[in-house]
Automatic annotation (TrEMBL):
Keywords recorded for this protein, A-Z: Ribonucleoprotein, Ribosomal protein
Entry annotated with the keyword Ribosomal protein: yes
One function term, GO molecular function aspect: structural constituent of ribosome
Protein name stated in the entry: 40S ribosomal protein S30
Family statement: Belongs to the eukaryotic ribosomal protein eS30 family.
Organism: Sporothrix schenckii (strain ATCC 58251 / de Perez 2211183) (Rose-picker's disease fungus)
A GO CC term attached to the entry: cytosolic small ribosomal subunit
InterPro entries: Ribosomal_eS30
Region (Disordered): 1-39
Record GO biological process: translation
């Protein structure tokens, strides 16, 4: 058996200390064709170009998307 980092008595210490947060309700993400459509609009329609011709994700849109 290999060496263990630290004693196993402290295993799971941090997880047990963190406060429990209830999961928030979120809108369901589109699946299939609708998801591909959303990806296309995000990548090619709402895109901003920087000097030099490089495409860059618009930060305002990216910040809103979870």
């Amino acid at each position: 058996m290999g060496k263990v980092h630290g004693s196993l008595a402290r295993a799971g210490k941090v997880k047990s200390q963190t406060p429990k947060v209830e999961p928030q309700e979120s809108k369901k993400t589109p699946k299939g064709r609708a998801h591909k459509r959303e990806q296309y609009t995000r990548r090619f329609v709402n895109v901003t170009t920087t000097p030099g011709g490089k495409r860059k994700v618009s930060f305002r849109k990216a910040a809103q998307e979870p």
